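Continuing the batch. This is chain 6 of the set; chains 1 through 5 are on the previous pages. Same settings as before, nothing changed between runs. Recording input and output for traceability.
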Amino acid sequence: MRALTWHGKRDVRVDTVPDPAIRDRDDVVVKITTTGLCGSDLHLYEVLGAFLDPGDILGHEPMGIVEEVGPDVTSLKPGDRVVIPFNVSCGSCFMCDRGLQSQCETTQVHEHGTGASLFGYTKLYGQVPGGQAEYLRVPFGNKLPIHVPHGPSDDRFVYLSDVLPTAWQAVEYASVPPGGSVAVLGLGPIGDMSARIAAHRGATTVIGIDLVPERLERAARRGIHTLDLRECGDDLVDTVRGLTGGRGPDAVIDAVGMEAHGSRVAATAQGMTTLLPDGLAAAMMKRAGVDRLAALSTAIDLVRRGGTVSISGVYGGAADPLPLLTMFDKQLQVRMGQANVWRWVDDILPLLTDGGDPLGVDDFATHRLPLEQAPDAYEMFQKKQDGAVKVLFTP
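Output for chain 6:
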């Protein structure tokens, strides 16, 4: 089969690799019909090479048609249409029973002290072959795949793999009160969808903050109050407070993570890890890695006293201290973590199947490309060219 594989920093290629096969009795093999490019894939493209091997298959946002099932699979059959969550979760352990699929005890990666394994996302998360490929082996076939109906286009359902549950959890964790206010830092796919969900769930004031014109225009078309960081500059906090009764928003969602702009020292430190031997680079990224905390610091400044900061952006290092004095003084709540995909499926799926399109998923993608063009798409997305916000591949 053809699959997008990692070969080094900013070097991904579409190669011919062996087809996946049934290995365990409850496996299924899915023929991928659509698969997404995620902002967190750019961390693999840039700085997490110490945890990858050449030839690793990337991607964690796939959907498709069941091709083959293991002998113990009873809930699916060949021909069924499924979305595959990015968490590799068993669905029956202590954590999964409590809606914490991202902490699945069956697939935790004890070698690195991390939570549930993820499709296509480094040795830190199990080195499981990913979904930017023609076929994907999926374990826990009775529990993990999300069965969706035939009929609507893939665009209606593919975001159940990551974007929708990640954004839904970001809003849930933000605890925006009815009629309240929320600021969203970063209007990439997760931030954009978080703003849409917050408005759908009743937030009266939703403020989207970014510095990419196409992203700001896209959010504004959905009725989001947008602020251009390039124009606000040092006045951002005062501007946001002016829109929120002088106090600041009830909640701030950090949908940026370590991709924050303007932190050159941190960016350089991260980049230097790619020049080290893998063992040293891995240690540096895990224990002395420098995250670009500009977005998180801004979130802490923006949110009102007694408010909530919800972090959905990915952070990868451990060295930077948090401004704990300010956080304590402001009596903030902070919630974060990988999305627990299955926890939110029952909330989201009716919005995709009950008529209408309240979250705008049908036209959420900005680019739809053949998988063979994935290397160029990674570069385009990394450089924020051609208005790229969400890219979908067709194998």
